[in-house]
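User: Here's a structure from my thesis project, written as structure tokens. My advisor, Dr. K., wants to see whether a designed sequence matches the one we expressed. Can you design one independently, without my sequence as a hint?
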């Protein structure tokens, strides 16, 4: 049957999206909006037909009318056009918008590098190892942040977090607990000042756990301090690269301290942060040890940031191996979620939260915008990884932010400036990746992390499939991501 359709001469083609399936149901992840749509009725048929090449609306209707009613086809074409899954073949491609953040964007998280000293000598450390960008050993900056500088940092946070009722203050190092007295004074000061300003500050810190002792553990618990432990796994893994300056492994020192912390500190979940290297790629063994043997609530794993020639840099084969194991843990996470049970693999949880909230990033992270790092002398940097680097300093806690320098950073690092990313369907989630990783790999923080593109797309696809499975089988579980 041949039909005459209003505007039937319009030639339709596929627009930008990424399809994924869950239990035979097709979803579309829209780019760049990051919306997710479930395909029903003739939607699949229309997309499959246009996947073979552009077609006029009349030809498309004629091709599919033996299987679907004409009115339903027209309605579905309109719906797919509305969400930009299909459109006029001659319409210009949607450009990545250069929508810079509004002036005065509030600070929500500040990371205080309270010391640039560490009692460990981890081989791969981005602060002290072969790829460091700041001379923390012989540089001019103080080894420890003074109490006065910490208090000035709190005032800076309260001032720059305009309009925010809850802000976050994270203590970092070096080894953070080397400057424990300043932590104690700063928390007390910040809590008092936040109350006076009608705000609430949530505190957290990262530590290698070597200096945990009963007094510190009690303070962490009593003050509801979130704790992340940097640990790479069981003894043979931990002692391979995370060693003291005399070369002695650290596992036997930290293992009883961590267990005591987990036993006493129940006011906030305690997480482990693992750095994966080519020398420790047994992701499943590491995860099982940290959750089942050690008792961590959640574990996040990240590949080492380093140049490719280092012997601990992850090879292409290593990345594939890492992805395979991540996918196994992701499926375990899904099975737990379907039964409303907890699973400690934070990598999938974090990505699913971004998918659920429809995050479409203009920047790889909030560094230099909603998140900033403060060096021991009070200089404000893009994030804690750049603390002390003049090239990445955008102000100080006493003088405030250099708005011109911050503005140039926001222009240079915007997704619109990363032309390599403009054809990638995963850019709403990735937006080029970590700035520090880019600086180490390419010598500039504004370069997209092209060496991880395939990995990021594969992992994002896996998380989309998990999201679809939850949407079908246990949609209420997704409500926890609304907070």
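Assistant: Designed independently from the structure alone:
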């Amino acid at each position: 049957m041949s039909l005459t359709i209003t505007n039937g001469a319009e030639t339709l083609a596929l627009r930008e999206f990424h399809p994924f399936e869950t239990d035979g149901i097709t979803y579309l992840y829209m780019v760049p909006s990051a919306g997710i749509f479930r395909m029903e009725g003739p939607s699949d048929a229309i997309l499959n037909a246009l996947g073979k090449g552009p077609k006029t609306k009349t030809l498309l209707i004629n091709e599919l009318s033996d299987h679907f009613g004409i009115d339903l086809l027209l309605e579905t074409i309109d719906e797919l056009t509305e969400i930009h899954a299909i459109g006029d073949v001659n319409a210009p491609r949607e450009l990545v918008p250069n929508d810079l953040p509004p002036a005065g964007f509030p600070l929500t998280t500040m990371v205080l590098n309270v010391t640039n000293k560490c009692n460990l000598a981890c081989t791969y450390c981005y602060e002290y190892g072969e790829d460091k960008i700041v001379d923390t050993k012989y540089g001019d900056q103080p080894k420890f942040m003074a109490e006065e500088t910490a208090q000035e940092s709190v005032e800076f946070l309260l001032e720059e977090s305009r309009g925010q009722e809850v802000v976050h203050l994270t203590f970092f190092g070096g080894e953070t607990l080397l400057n424990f007295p300043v932590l104690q004074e700063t928390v007390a000061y910040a809590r008092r000042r936040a109350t006076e300003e009608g705000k609430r500050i949530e505190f957290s810190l990262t530590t290698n756990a070597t200096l945990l002792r009963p007094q510190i553990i009690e303070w962490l618990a009593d003050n509801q301090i979130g704790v992340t432990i940097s640990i790479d796994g069981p003894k043979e893994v931990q002692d391979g690269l995370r060693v003291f300056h005399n070369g002695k492994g650290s596992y036997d020192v930290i293992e009883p301290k961590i267990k005591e912390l987990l036993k006493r500190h129940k006011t906030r979940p305690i997480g482990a942060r693992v750095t994966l290297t080519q020398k420790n790629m047994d992701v499943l063994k590491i995860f099982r040890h940290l959750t089942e043997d050690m008792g961590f609530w959640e574990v996040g794993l990240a590949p080492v940031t380093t140049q490719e020639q280092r012997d601990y840099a992850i090879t292409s084969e290593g990345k594939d191996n890492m992805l395979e194991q991540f996918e196994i843990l992701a499926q375990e996470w899904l099975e737990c979620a379907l039964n409303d049970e907890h699973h400690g693999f934070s990598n999938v949880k974090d990505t699913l939260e971004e998918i659920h909230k429809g995050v479409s990033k203009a920047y790889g992270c909030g560094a230099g915008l909603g998140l900033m790092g403060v060096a021991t002398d009070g200089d404000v940097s893009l994030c804690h990884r750049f603390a002390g680097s003049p090239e990445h300093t955008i102000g100080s806690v006493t003088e405030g932010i250099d708005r011109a320098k911050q503005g140039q950073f926001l222009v240079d690092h915007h997704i619109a400036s990363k032309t390599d990313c403009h054809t990638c369907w995963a850019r709403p989630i990735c937006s080029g990746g970590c700035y520090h990783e880019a600086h180490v790999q390419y010598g500039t923080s504004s370069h997209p992390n092209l060496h991880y593109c395939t990995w990021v797309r594969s992992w994002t696809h896996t998380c989309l499939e998990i999201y679809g499975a939850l949407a079908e089988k246990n949609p209420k579980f997704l409500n926890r991501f609304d907070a």
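When you compare it with your expressed construct, this may help: Residues 83 and 107 are 33 Å apart (CA to CA).
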